[in-house]
Design brief:
Strand content: 25-35%
Helix content: 25-40%
Number of helices: 5
Oligomer: single chain
Order of helices and strands: EHEEEHEHEEHH
Shape: globular
Distance between the termini: 33 Å
Number of strands: 7
Strand order of the largest sheet: 1-2-3-4-5-6-7
Structural class: alpha/beta
Length: 146
């Protein structure tokens, strides 16, 4: 982790998910966050990160998406870990399905606050207010595809 400005870790560099976490952390740093990687003991459901920007701290759970229809399942796995989820999109995913999966997550989890989507250079924040707004799917697709 030498030279990784604005990324801090309290251990776990040898974990199987470390490279995946660092990849997402680097993307968050590019978008103005300081990132703290959290320890992730086996068998304990915890957040993966704390993101900080402008003095606001949020805990996030990372879900890397590699399958064509796995967002819904991965989001549901995060319920009970944290109210903020990072989706690191490592595959092409149909935008309308992605929008609907995120909407279903917010409907299933009253405590959910935000889903951050990392896709290439894209960094898209989806809040509960956005999902519950008018024309959400159309507005999501417009933002996601731009």
């Amino acid at each position: 982790m030498e030279g990784e400005k604005d990324i801090f870790s309290v251990g776990g560099e040898n974990g199987e998910n470390y490279d995946n976490l660092m990849n997402a952390a680097r993307k968050a740093v590019e978008h103005g966050y300081r990132v703290f990687l959290l320890p992730n003991p086996k068998g304990i459901r915890t957040a993966d990160f704390i993101f900080e920007r402008k003095g606001v701290y949020k805990m996030f759970d990372l879900k890397t998406i590699t399958g064509k229809s796995s967002v819904s399942t991965r989001l549901m796995e995060s319920i009970g870990q944290t109210n903020h989820v990072v989706l690191n999109m490592a595959t092409d995913y149909e935008p309308r399905l992605l929008a609907k999966d995120i909407q279903a997550y917010f409907e299933s989890n009253r405590d959910a606050r935000e889903v951050l989507i990392l896709k290439g250079l894209k960094f898209l924040s989806v809040s509960r207010r956005f999902v519950e707004g008018n024309d959400y799917v159309k507005m999501f697709m417009k933002r996601y595809l731009r």
